[in-house]
């Protein structure tokens, strides 16, 4: 069966979870973004918490929970970050990583070797103030959410400024604290317009195309969206951060499905609990979906913080070539992976 537009109806179902809370080595610590790279690996940017140097790194793993090591550390030197934020791969197999604190972009190869960096703090053309989301098109143009300058900037891979997007005076196309970015298969840029509770769409030369969503918690409404991915049919997958959920919208912004989270224990967590038997025994007795009399079930943040399987700070959403959806959860240090139901 297909819809009137020729697109098969979409239903997503839970597949598995990758990750575990670890400040060093195999695991994640307050991850902020994930790149699903051309070599089949996942590159997970770990932000840690403000003022804590341990935990800042990029973790290399794959969907089978194979661990390949880490690179990067806390600091302002080459190959270091203070507030690592977004990560994306170009066609040359290079990883571009934004540092919100240092207002720069660092470049690495897929083995984690530092290549170069560019960017400087400021508000002029080519300057950055708190860069967060990053996306790269098929010609290796780099789009960066220049968050505190309320705009997106387009650069060459070496950091030469090409274009500024979303700094208009009218509401149409204007941005407030933009966050996650994606370049759709057709070449248009989609922006998670965090401060305006919507997704905005632009052409590659900065022309406004459309806006999707409105403030709220109903179906198709958004509260502080942090990330967006778009598939070959134009369907939008949105990390609705403020509502602690993922929503799928069609090409016109109509609601299709929402996910609240269905996480199970990751392979890493299972191994840890098997080794640390006292903790494993305590967990086996724990109520992971408690009924708490004082729990305000109208507040998605409060509910998510108490029920482990649910998304808690779904900060990033990515697609792979097989149509799987990767949802990075900052507060639970993991990635929930979904696939299209057969």
Strands, helices and their partners?
Elements: E1 12-18, E2 31-36, E3 42-46, E4 57-61, E5 67-71, E6 73-74, E7 80-81, E8 84-89, E9 94-99, E10 104-109, E11 114-118, E12 131-136, E13 142-146, E14 151-155, E15 161-165, E16 178-183, E17 189-193, E18 198-202, E19 208-212, E20 227-230, E21 236-240, E22 245-249, E23 255-259, H1 267-275, H2 277-285, H3 300-306, E24 314-319, E25 325-329, E26 334-340
Parallel strand pairs: 6-7
Antiparallel strand pairs: 1-26, 2-3, 3-4, 4-5, 8-9, 9-10, 10-11, 12-13, 13-14, 14-15, 16-17, 17-18, 18-19, 20-21, 21-22, 22-23, 24-25, 25-26
Helix pairs in contact: 1-2
State the main characteristics.
342 residues, mainly beta, 3 helices, 26 strands, 7% helix, globular
What report would you give on this structure?
By secondary structure, the protein is mostly beta strands. It is built from 3 helices and 26 strands. The strands form 7 sheets. The chain has a 4-stranded antiparallel sheet with strand order 1-26-25-24, with no helix packed on it. Strand 12 and strand 13 form a beta hairpin. The protein starts with 11 loop residues before the first strand and ends with a strand. The relative contact order is 0.14. The N terminus is likely disordered.
């Amino acid at each position: 069966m297909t819809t009137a537009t020729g697109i098969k109806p979409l239903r997503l179902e839970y597949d598995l979870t990758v990750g575990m809370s670890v400040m060093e080595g195999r695991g994640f610590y307050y991850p902020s973004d994930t790149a699903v790279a051309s070599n089949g690996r996942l590159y997970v940017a770990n932000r840690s918490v403000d003022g804590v140097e341990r935990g800042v790194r990029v973790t290399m793993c794959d969907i089978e929970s194979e661990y390949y090591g880490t690179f990067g550390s806390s600091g302002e030197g080459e190959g270091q970050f203070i507030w690592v934020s977004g990560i994306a791969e170009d066609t040359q197999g290079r990883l571009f990583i934004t540092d919100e604190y240092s207002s720069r972009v660092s470049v690495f190869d897929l083995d984690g070797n530092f290549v170069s960096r560019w960017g400087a703090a400021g508000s002029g053309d080519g300057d950055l103030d708190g860069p967060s989301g990053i996306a790269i098109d098929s010609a290796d143009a780099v789009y960066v959410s220049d968050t505190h300058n309320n705009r997106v900037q387009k650069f060459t891979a070496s950091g030469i400024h090409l274009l500024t997007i979303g700094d208009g005076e009218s509401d149409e196309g204007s941005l407030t604290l933009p966050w996650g970015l994606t370049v759709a298969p057709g070449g248009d840029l989609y922006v998670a317009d965090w401060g305006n509770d919507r997704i905005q769409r632009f052409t590659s030369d900065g022309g406004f195309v459309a806006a999707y969503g409105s403030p709220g918690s109903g179906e198709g409404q958004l509260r502080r969206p942090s990330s967006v991915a778009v598939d070959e049919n134009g369907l939008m997958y949105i990390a609705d951060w403020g509502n602690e959920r993922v929503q799928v919208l069609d090409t016109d912004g109509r609601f299709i499905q929402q996910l609240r989270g269905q996480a199970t224990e990751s392979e890493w967590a299972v191994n840890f609990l098997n080794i640390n038997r006292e903790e494993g025994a305590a967990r086996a007795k724990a109520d992971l979906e408690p009924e708490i009399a004082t729990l305000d079930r109208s507040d998605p943040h409060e509910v998510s913080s108490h029920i482990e399987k649910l998304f808690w700070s779904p900060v990033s959403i990515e697609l792979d070539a097989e149509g799987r959806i990767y949802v990075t959860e900052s507060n639970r240090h993991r990635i929930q992976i979904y696939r299209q139901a057969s």
